[in-house]
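Example 3.
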Amino acid sequence: MKEKKEYMDLAQSAVERAKRAGAGAAEAFVSDTQSVHISVSGRQVEQVNAVQEAGIGLRLLKDQKMIFGSTNDLSASSIQSLVDDLMRKVPFHTADRFNVIPEKEDRSLERDWASYTDFITYDPQIAETAVEDKIKRALRMEAAGLEYSPKVSGATIVIYQDGTSYVYLANSNGLAGWFPSSGCWGDAEMSAAQGADHQSGSYLNAFAKYADLNPEDLGRRAAEDAVRMLGAKPIESCQVPMVVSPRVGTELFSFFAFLLSADAVQKGRSLFAGKIGTKVASASFSLVDDGRLKGGIATAPVDGEGTPRQTTPLIVDGILKSYLYDAYTARKGKTRSTGNRSRDAFDSIGGIGPTNFCLQPGRLKPEEILAGIKRGFYLTQAIGIFAGIHSASGDFSIPVAGLLIENGKLTVPVRGISIGGNLFELLKSVDKIGNDLTWIQSMGCPTFLVSSIKIGGVRQPEVR
Amino acid sequence: MTLVTRRDFLGRSTAGISSLTLSPALLELLMSTAGCSRRPAPALLDLIVPEEVLNKAVALLMAKGASFADVFIERAAFDSVSSDDKKINTSTVIEKGVGLRAVKDGKTFYAYTSSFVPEQIYSTARYVAAAASQGGGGPEGKVFTLVPQRSTLAFPVKPPPSEIAIERKIDLFKALTDRAWSADSRVVQVGQFMRESIRQVNIAASSGKIVNQALALTEFMASTHMKDKEGNLQLGFDGRAAYAGRDFFTGQNAFERIVDKSGARAKALLDAVDSPRGRFPVVLAPGDNGVLFHESCGHGMEADLVFKGSNFKDQLGKQTAAKGVTLVDDGTLPQMPGSFAFDDEGTPSERTVLIEDGVQRGYLCDQIWGARLGLKSTGNGRRESFRYPPIPRMRNTFIEKGARLPEEIISSTKRGIYVAVGGGGQIDVITGNFMMGVGEGYLIENGKMTRPIKGATLSGMGIQALKTIDLIGNDLQMFASPGRCGKVQSVPVGFGMPTVRVRGILVGGKGEAWEDKERGAL
C-alpha cells in the first residue's frame, strides 16, 4: 500500500483550521485516486485516459447548522479560504438538531482501518500493472466478442477501466483513519447483423481483483447477448408470466436501494415508510445489504463518515426489517447508523447508499423455473430503466427485449415491446427464485419469476 | 495596454462584455492565481497560464510524432443552494485542472493534472507524448506560436451571482419552499435546488489557436411529492438550465412557475389513470419533448457512433425522415444550455442542419471522428471537464416548425395520447431502439384531451419514429433543459420542437391494450 502520510496530516490540519475558525465540529475527507480508462475500437486503441487526482471535502457544523465545500487545490491558502468561505455562509443555513459529525462509540474500529484486511477490497496489482497490459486486455475483450460468431458485425463500446483510491478521514470528535480500495471494470457493447436485421448486446461487470477480470469472457457475453437477439420481433399486447435474468434484476433492484434509504423514508418520499414488520414481498424474498462481504466490490471497513460497515438484512422472508441509515437519519430515527453513508469522492457530500446489495438465492435451477411456464417472457435487456420507473408510486413501464418462453423452453427473440407494472406489487409477485446468484458490480441477483406482467406490444411487426 | 484592476474586472463583466461573471469563490480563485499574464483590452480575461506555457506544452505534446495535440485548462466554481425537508443549505465546489491530449493515427492519449505549475504541466505533456509515440519520433524542437481566437457570441449573466448576497438566495428559497408546501394539502415533501457554476477555459491546439472563454450556467430544479388519503404517492418535477443569470428566470421560466408546475404535475398524477399500452398516435407538445429526437435520432448522428455503425451510417443524401421534417443542432442560441462560442477543442460553434425536409444532410462532428468520416468539425467536440478528452456531443437539438395549428393536430386525432412533458430517455444506437419517460400526459379521446395518464413511456426505432411523423405544428418552442446528457461524460444540452404527431411509437403502460384504429387513414 502506498498511502501518503501527508494527506492524513492534511485532513487533520483542515479540521483544526475549521475549529480555529469557529466551527463547533468539523470533518475532512481526502481522497487520492489513480485510474485508467481505455477504450478500443476496430482492434485499435481509441482513447487512453490516465488520471491521478486528490482533493478534500469539508463538512462544518456550527449551532446545529451544517455546510459542505470541496476543492482539488490542496495548498494551505486554498483550504483556509474554503474554510473561511464556509464559515461566512453557515450562519444563513437552517438549524437542524439532528445534524451530526459522528462521535467515537463502542463499536468504532480500534485499530488502523487499513489493518482490517477482511473488510478491505484492494489489489495492488491494479495500480502496479502497466497501461500497455491493460490496453491488451481491452483489445482481447473486443477480439473475443468479434470472433464469437460470424454474425457479430462490430463493437460500439469496449472499455477497460480501473481505479485505486485512498481515503483519509478525520473529524473533530477524534475519529480518524485511512484505507485503500480498488477495482477494475470491463464494459462491452457488440452488434450482430443478419441481412437488414441489426441487434445489439452488452455486458458490464466489475471485479475486486485484477486477475478476476476475464476479458474474453466479457467480450463473448456481450456478443452472445447480441447474436441471440437476431430475428427479434414484437409480440402483441398480453399478460404473461415473466422470468427476469440476473442482469436486468440487478438494475430493477437498484431502485429499492433508494426506496429503502432512511432519508427517503423519513422525508415521505418512499412508500416503505411505516412498513417495518409488515409483509412487503413474497415469502421467498430476502434482501440484504452487506458492507462486509469478503471480496465484495463495495466492501470497506468504514463508511463515508467513519462508521463501521455492517451486514443489514432489509427484507427477510418477505417482511421489512430495516432501512439503510447514516448518522443523521439514525439520530432522527432514534436508532444506530447502519454504516451506509456513501461518498464516491471528495467533491460530493454524499448520501445514503447501498454497499453490496443482494437478493438472496433460492434453490431452483434457472431451467426449473422456466420448465413450469407454458407461455411467458424471459427478460434479458431493458433500456432507460431510470426514466421508466416512477420512484414515488413505483409504477413503471420499460421498453424491453428478451426471449419468448414456450412450453418451458426459450424460443424466439422479442424486441419492440414494453412491460408495465408497479415495483411494490412486483415484489409480492416474485414466485420463484433461482440458485444462480450473479453479481453485477455491487448488486447481486439470481434468476427469478414474476407470476404475471402486462406487456405492451403490436399486432403487426412493422408499420412500413 | 492597460492593467486590469479588480474593480474594472467586475465592472466589465457586469456590463456583459463577456460571458464571465464571478462568484466570490471564483473571484478569489482568479485573483489568487500566480503567473497570470496581463493582456491588453479588449481581452477581458487573462489566460489562466501564460501564453508561452501553452506554446511549450503543445510543443512537448507534439514532440514525439503526434499528428494533433491540445491543452485544455480549466478553473471552475460551483455554488449550490438546496431546500429539502424545509431546510435550506448551500455548498461550494472549487476545482481546476489541465487536460493534455495527443492524437496519433486516430488514437487519443490523454492525462490531466490538477496543478497549474508549468513544470507539472510539462511533465504530464511529456508523459502523454511518450504514450502516443509508442517509440516513434517527431519534429523535436519545433516551435508552436498560437494565435488567440475571437468570437462575436457572448452569453452574459445578469445579475452576476457575486452581486447576489447569500441572504437573498436563502430568502428566495424560503419563499419558494413556503409556496410549494402551501400549494395543496396533500404535499408531503418538497425539494428545490439551484447551482450557479462558472468555468473559465483555455484551449491551445497544435493547429495554431488559443481560445479563452468563460461559461456561466445557472440550473434550477423543483420537486414536489404528494400523497392522497388512499396512500397513493406521486412526484412532480420541473426545472431549467441556462447560460444566463437570474434574468433568465422570469416570465415562463420564473422560479415560482417552475415550483408551481412541479406541484401541478404531482397533483395531476394523483388523479391520473394508468396509461394505455400499444402502438397508436402520440401527439407531442412543443418544447422539451425534443428529448425524444435527441435520443432517437441525435445520438445516432454523432460522428463516433456513425463511424461505428449507428443506423444513420451512410445516409447522407438519403431520406431518413418524413417529408417536411427538418432537424437542427444549434450551438449559437442565446441562453440555451447547449450553447457556447467555441467547443471544447476550440472550433467555433455553429448551426448544423442534420435533416432537411426529410433528407439527411449532416452529422455531428468533432475533429477526430469528423476526420474519420472525411468531414469537418461542426463544433460538436465537447467534454464534461478537464478530466475528459472531447467526444462528439449534441448542443441544442430541435425540429423546425411546420404549418399546422397545434389545436388542429389534437382535434384530428381520434384516440391516442398527448405528451405534455417528457422525462429522461435512452438510446441503443445499433438497433435504433430508444425510450423516453412521460412526466405529464393526457388521453386524447375523439379529438379532445381528457384525463391525465400515469406510468407511460414511449419507445421505438429512431428512423421509424421520424418517418411516421405525419403532422407538424407551427409553434416551435425551445426548452432550456435542466437534464444533462450522459455519454460516459455528462454535459448540458437543450431541446426544442413544435407540436408533432407521430404514428410509429410504442406506448408502454399498465392500462388497457390499445391499437391504432386510424391506420387506414394514413
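Chain B touches chain A through 92 residues (CB under 8 Å). The two ends of chain B are 68 Å apart (CA to CA).
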